[in-house]
Amino acid sequence: MPSESNVLGILRPMGGGDPVPLLKAELIIGRRPSCDICLDFSNVSGKHCMLRLTNQVWHVRDLGSTNGTTLNGSVIQREMSVMPDDEFGVATHMFTIDYDPGQGGASAPRVGTAEESEAASARRSLLELAGIEDPDKPKGKPKAKAPDRPSRNTAKMERPSSAPTPTPEPDFGDSLPPHVKNAPEPVVSTNDDDFFKLIEESVIDKKDKS
User: Fold this and answer.
1) Torsion on CA atoms 114, 120, 125, 126, rounded to nearest 10
2) Which H or E run includes 59?
3) What values do phi and psi take at 97, rounded to 5?
4) pLDDT tens across the length of the chain (210 residues)
5) I need a labelling partner for 4 at 20 to 30 A (CA). Which of 11, 49, 99, 126 fits?
6) Taking the complete model, does pTM exceed 0.90, yes or no?
7) What distance in Å separates the CA atoms of residue 94 and residue 13, rounded to the nearest whole number?
8) What is the phi-psi region of residue 55: left when phi exceeds 0, alpha when psi lies from -120 to 50, beta otherwise?
9) CB atoms < 10 A from the CB of 95, how many?
């Protein structure tokens, strides 16, 4: 029985079956008895695929099989990394690999993902053209925001309106002589005696009438 120190991972069938310990860093899976992991199924090729441990991460590569090798439901065309939560299929037989990727696996990129990098670059370019910030882009120091410029309409609304020009009054053509026009206003002066005298006369006049 292999010791735990020699086990590099556990291959677990998802449809039921015994788990298979992975004891070597490179393993051939296929229908031939000479394969490291023999799957005696009619839809499995003689040498179907290969598992390889690189930088503490397991990878799978198809070996030109008839029914293909899949990773999370997609047929692979090149070597791809297999994380513990990934599902890879040998024809129609699904498996997971139980292992600890460690520090090397936490940051190790998947093998053969040049197209994914190009797609990510194209996505960022499209987001920049649309003026949308990429949520996956690491946030750095925020740029200083340029002061807002008032629009033409706003500037036109805030412009002070000029005061209306007063309309001159019409000239009626008075024919008064100049000495009358230029004469000072008459000044009427009264005192308390005159005021009381007017009141007294008004009272006497009312008595006489009655």
Assistant:
1) 130
2) strand 57-62
3) -115, 120
4) 455 668 999 999 998 889 999 999 999 999 999 999 999 999 999 999 999 999 999 999 999 999 999 999 999 999 999 999 999 999 999 999 999 996 544 434 454 444 454 555 555 665 566 566 655 555 555 555 555 655 555 444 455 545 555 544 444 455 566 666 666 666 555 566 666 677 777 766 666 665
5) 49
6) no
7) 6
8) left
9) 23
